[in-house]
From TrEMBL:
PANTHER family: TRANSPOSASE (PTHR33408), TRANSPOSASE DDE DOMAIN-CONTAINING PROTEIN (PTHR33408:SF4)
Residue stretches making up the Transposase DDE domain: 286-407
Protein name: IS1182 family transposase
Pfam families per record: DDE_Tnp_1_6 (PF13751), DUF772 (PF05598)
Limits of the Transposase InsH N-terminal domain: 2-57
Entry superkingdom: Bacteria
Region annotation Disordered: where it falls in the sequence: 98-122, 135-155, 428-449
Comp. bias (Basic and acidic residues): 136-147
């Protein structure tokens, strides 16, 4: 297929909210305006729908990125992009695979299944999750099966699926996820960065849904900063929800001279009840006056770096508050993240009036864009498989959205009009005019009948 015809065809599918390639070709054959746009005559047959699918697989993602950059540069030239404030969010998109096709992963070191001929079948991926994650998942499933009442019996018959132990042979890149209010499904994660000036999409990428949003932010920032630098724009404020709260993300944005307006949530607390922190000495003091100095760094099972503070054994054993402070332990130990300073600054911004304004600005900007993409631009479901194909589809959807904004944009032009106003009359001029009108009144003739 001609590359120009291909990209015109798939853009029509995004603009007309069509997901299936087969339905797209049938729809275009009935529209004379679309045939004119594609350069086809009425009696000329359109390409087969499978040709469009194969052509999409042949083009690398860099070609779709180039098309997105070209349209985005036109939006910048028309004044639709400010560049200093970006709103970031993500939403799941249903993959082109069914949850019924999910299979269980093999344990590490196990041999794959064999066909009737003795040849090995397509091997399933091995379990790669950490041991403590598998133990946590097994405990969660056992707890659900042991729940009393009909709910426990329902879980006993149902398949308790997890990305740590199951995969989809139809689309191995798709991940099992659930959105509040919706059923569990195989999804991809669409991550967006939207400019707050006119709602133009700045960056889009396809991510896995089995990890937190905060882990995808560094890759999103890399692509966003590259596109901003190409168009000579600079990022100052990044707006995101609490799912992107992470100490490393706060520190990364501060290193890039940006401000993270991301609410702090989770286990972080700006103050530890009953303890006073001395920043100059990097120590804590308890209610009994004992000092807990910093001893060493530690890595949690999730890979996070923390700082450990603890008191001496003698201080805790002779303290009268030990039964309520550290019952059953030898000494008191405190844990603090190494990004505590960045967390504290983000927490202070969150409590400010400007932080509340940015929260409402993010909700009114990026969530409206996601609503349009999911319901009016064919992003409610993927018609391709694999993360690379999902990334191409999301790029095409963003291109169609930006193109529509570009065509609808009408710059505000101020109309200038020069008018000559009469000179204001003075009191003497008004009296002179009245006398002239009186002298010009004709006097009636005397006499007559």
């Amino acid at each position: 297929m001609d590359p120009v015809v291909f990209f015109k065809l798939v853009l029509v599918g995004r603009l007309e909210n069509l997901v299936s390639d087969r339905r797209l070709v049938e729809y275009c054959a009935l529209r004379l305006d679309i045939l004119l746009f594609l350069g086809y005559e009425v009696d000329k047959e359109l390409p087969w729908h499978s040709t469009a699918s194969r052509t999409r697989q042949l083009f690398p993602a860099a070609v779709f990125e180039r098309l997105f950059d070209h349209v985005f540069a036109q939006c910048v030239a028309r004044g639709l992009v400010a560049g200093d404030t970006q709103a970031v969010d993500s939403a799941p998109v249903k993959a082109n695979a069914s949850l019924d096709s999910v299979r269980e992963k093999q344990p590490t070191g196990a041999s794959g299944p064999f066909l009737a001929t003795g040849q090995p079948a397509v091997p399933s991926p091995a379990v790669t999750a950490a041991a403590h994650h598998l133990r946590r998942e097994a405990a969660r499933q056992a707890k659900r099966r042991s729940e009393p009442g009909p709910l426990g019996a329902q879980h006993e018959q149902a398949r308790l699926l997890s990305n740590k132990t199951h995969y989809s042979p139809t689309d191995p890149d798709a991940r099992i996820s659930i959105k509040p209010g919706k059923a569990r499904a195989l999804n991809y994660l669409c991550s967006l960065a939207v400019d707050t000036a006119h709602g133009v999409i700045r960056h889009v990428q396809a991510d896995y849904t089995d990890s937190r949003d905060s882990l995808h932010l560094p890759r999103l920032l890399t692509g966003l900063q590259r596109r901003l630098g190409t168009n000579e724009l600079r990022l100052r404020d990044l707006l995101a929800d609490a799912g992107y709260a992470n100490g490393s993300n706060y520190a990364l944005l501060e290193a890039q001279q940006g401000t993270a307006w991301i609410p702090v949530f989770g286990q972080y607390k700006p103050e530890i009840a009953g303890f006073t922190y001395d920043a100059s000495a990097d120590t804590y003091a308890c209610a009994a006056g004992k000092v807990l100095p910093f001893h060493r760094f530690n890595v949690t099972p999730d890979g996070s770096w923390v700082k450990l503070y603890w008191a001496t054994y003698r201080d805790c054993q002779q303290c009268p508050l030990k039964p309520t402070c550290v019952p059953g332990a030898k000494r008191k130990q405190l844990t603090k993240t190494i990004y505590d300073a960045a967390y504290r600054r983000a927490w202070q911004r969150q409590q400010s009036r400007r932080g509340h304004r940015h929260r409402h600005l993010r909700q009114s900007t990026v969530e409206a864009v996601f609503g349009n993409l999911l319901h009016h631009y064919g992003l409610r479901r993927m018609n391709v498989r694999g993360q690379a194909g999902a990334h191409k589809t999301m790029l095409l959807t963003a291109v169609a959205y930006n193109l529509k904004k570009l065509l609808k944009h009408r710059p505000n032009r101020q109309a200038s009009l020069a008018m000559v106003l009469p000179r204001p009359l003075l009191a003497a001029d008004r009296r002179a005019r009245r006398q002239n009108r009186r002298s010009q009144v004709p006097t009636p003739a005397l006499g007559g009948r």
